[in-house]
């Protein structure tokens, strides 16, 4: 029909939902040929061919087993190779976060196009395509006579034609699941007001009810998903909040599910009793069990500890060749949370601060990838947020206890490691000594690890050899002495003393200088005096912090960005390399965090024509493939630009 631009648009929408849809790539290629865009057409057809002939690898066989310390966990039946797809799952229920309602599709969570589609009934949700709108539960067109109100004189053949046009494509779409937006529609705007997790709880309740209707079964709202919860460990304030939101949610769902979700007078009376007890004994521990039989309360607690954040990689848009100065990617790549979802099988993966699997999302589908070789029978563990190299042990423990109500006992939290020793450490006052000096809070945490090591004499010698191989002797050789008493403010190599109170006072004087540099970078204008002051402050920090302290890596990264903005690219490269060297000590050489930093380095090396850029790009490709497999190019669009430049050279 000659609607080539419309064809490209529709193909692009289809590919946002299913990036490996071979037919969409093929049709896009044909359209580009007709438009004379032959280079794009060749790429489209090549992708179509690759998508068609390569099947997705079989997922690893998993087994859910009960562990002695962490409850249920996921174990691999056979050996798992590095970069293998371990698990793939669509959400039981999902919801967009409020901050992304105007920017991302409410079903697939991809960015919205300029011509986004809104719900025909309430106009609140926005979708990137008709497909997403229908999957989410758009009102269906009815072929009955009521649908043609005011058109009674219309001939039958024209009515049929009209319905075919209105239903074009929609009638062939099988949602395959229960519509998630339908109960939120028809003028009821409560999903705009309530927190995302409460809206998500509503979608879960509706799905359970609808599934029970189809199976002619009774509703068991809490036991249906078989998920853990932390209600008993919550403080009274949090319990009160959950009870209040539960009552509100049930009231909002009454329009559709009055019979299945009744609000009785007894329930309200017991809720009032809960409020009275809360205010009467605010500082005392309330009754451990829910004070009235309100299953959504437990569901909210289940969501709190089992839901996952659906994320998208955010990077500056490339508007021209990457070898032009304005297109160097020196700012941080960030994972932006756009949605929240519950994955039933995915929730059985336990946490580790040194995980052996990594999660990512294509549309709303969870993918779990092995990041290292895993022996048969081993547990597959992901990170619930903090990892070794990102935070130190005490901060990781605090977050996990506050958010998930458990004390982490993974290897990263129970065994000594270089990262936890150096990440916030101070420099030894003795020249050329690489020993670490710890403050009191870090010392307390590391003492506990030492105690666990010493209390297990049968494995003590093996652990010592393992730790020596991990380069701990370089920064803390004293810990290998069985009678050593770990003390704060003393070097763990030469026992030199450092006055940390005076050191912290000196550090505080540099904070305003570092903040001014960050503000200047954000404005894309870095005055010479601010840059010079930042260099001096960095030199001062180097005399106080340990060379592997993460704060040094952060200020070096800021200097790299600043020097790039003022056009001193070689200086930017040098500071970028220094930052990466520190992060490699914290994370390891093949961690995803290193891959993100190498993208900055490679873009700078390309700008100056450095031949080392090719090696950096190859290393980036290897790291991202380890974490994202064949989907690396889709998640990191900038990677395609780097590879293209590498091939051109």
UniProtKB/TrEMBL annotation:
InterPro entries: SET_dom, SET_dom_sf, TPR-like_helical_dom_sf, TPR_rpt. Residues 60-385 form the SET domain. Pfam families: SET. PANTHER family: TETRATRICOPEPTIDE REPEAT (TPR)-LIKE SUPERFAMILY PROTEIN. This is SET domain-containing protein. It comes from Solanum verrucosum.
């Amino acid at each position: 029909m000659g609607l080539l631009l419309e064809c490209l648009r529709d193909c692009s929408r289809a590919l946002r939902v299913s990036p490996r849809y071979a037919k969409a790539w093929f049709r896009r290629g044909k359209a580009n040929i007709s438009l004379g865009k032959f280079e794009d057409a060749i790429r489209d057809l090549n992708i179509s061919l690759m998508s068609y002939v390569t099947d997705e690898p079989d997922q690893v066989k998993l087994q859910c087993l009960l562990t002695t310390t962490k409850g249920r966990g996921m174990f691999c039946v056979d050996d798992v190779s590095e970069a293998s797809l371990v698990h793939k799952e669509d959400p039981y229920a999902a919801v967009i976060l409020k901050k992304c309602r105007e920017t991302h599709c409410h079903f697939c969570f991809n960015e919205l196009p300029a011509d986004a589609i809104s719900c025909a009934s309430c106009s609140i949700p926005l979708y990137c395509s008709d497909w997403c709108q229908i999957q989410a539960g758009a009102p269906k067109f009815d072929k009955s006579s009521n649908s043609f109100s005011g058109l009674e004189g219309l001939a039958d053949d024209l009515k049929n034609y009209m319905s075919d046009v209105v239903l074009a494509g929609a009638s062939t779409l099988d949602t395959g699941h229960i519509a998630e937006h339908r109960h939120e529609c028809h003028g009821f705007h409560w999903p705009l007001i309530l927190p995302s997790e409460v809206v998500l709880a509503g979608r879960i309740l509706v799905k359970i009810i609808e599934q029970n209707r189809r199976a002619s079964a009774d509703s068991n709202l809490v036991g249906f998903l078989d998920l853990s919860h932390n209600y008993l460990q919550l403080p009274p304030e949090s319990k009160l909040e959950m009870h209040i939101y539960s009552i509100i949610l049930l009231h909002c769902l009454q329009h559709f599910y009055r019979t299945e979700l009744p609000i009785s007078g007894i329930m309200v009376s017991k809720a009032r009793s809960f409020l009275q007890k809360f205010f009467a004994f605010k500082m005392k521990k309330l009754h451990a069990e829910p004070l009235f039989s309100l299953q959504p309360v437990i569901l909210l607690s289940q969501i709190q500890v089992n839901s996952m954040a659906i994320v998208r990689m955010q990077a500056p848009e490339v508007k021209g060749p990457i070898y032009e100065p304005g297109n160097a990617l020196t700012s941080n790549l960030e994972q932006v949370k756009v949605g929240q979802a519950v994955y039933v099988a995915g929730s059985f993966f336990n946490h580790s601060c040194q995980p052996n699997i990594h999660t990512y999302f294509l549309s709303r589908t969870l993918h779990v990838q092995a990041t290292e070789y895993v022996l048969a029978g081993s547990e597959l563990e992901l990170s619930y947020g903090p990892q070794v190299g990102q935070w130190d042990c005490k901060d990781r423990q605090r977050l996990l206890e506050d958010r998930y109500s458990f004390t982490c006992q993974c290897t990263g939290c129970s065994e000594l490691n270089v990262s936890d020793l150096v990440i916030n450490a101070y420099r030894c006052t003795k020249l050329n000594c690489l020993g670490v000096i710890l403050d009191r809070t870090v010392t307390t945490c590391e003492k506990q690890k030492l105690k666990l090591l010493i209390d297990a004499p049968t494995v003590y010698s093996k652990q010592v050899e393992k730790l020596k191989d991990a380069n701990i002797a370089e920064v803390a050789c004293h810990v290998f002495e069985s009678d050593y008493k770990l003390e704060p403010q003393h070097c763990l190599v030469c026992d030199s003393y450092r006055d940390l109170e005076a050191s912290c006072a000196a550090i505080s004087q540099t904070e305003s200088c570092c903040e001014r540099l960050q503000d200047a970078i954000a404005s894309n204008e870095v005055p010479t005096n601010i840059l010079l002051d930042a260099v001096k402050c960095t030199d001062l920090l180097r005399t106080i912090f340990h060379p592997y302290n993460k704060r040094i890596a952060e200020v070096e990264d800021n200097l790299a960005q600043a020097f790039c903005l003022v056009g001193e690219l070689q200086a930017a490269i040098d500071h970028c390399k220094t930052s990466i060297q520190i992060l490699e000590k914290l994370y390891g050489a093949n961690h995803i965090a290193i891959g993100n930093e190498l993208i900055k380095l490679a873009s700078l090396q390309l700008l100056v024509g450095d031949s080392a850029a090719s090696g950096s790009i190859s290393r980036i490709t290897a790291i991202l493939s380890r974490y994202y497999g064949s989907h690396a190019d889709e998640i990191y669009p900038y990677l395609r630009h780097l590879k293209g430049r590498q091939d051109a050279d």
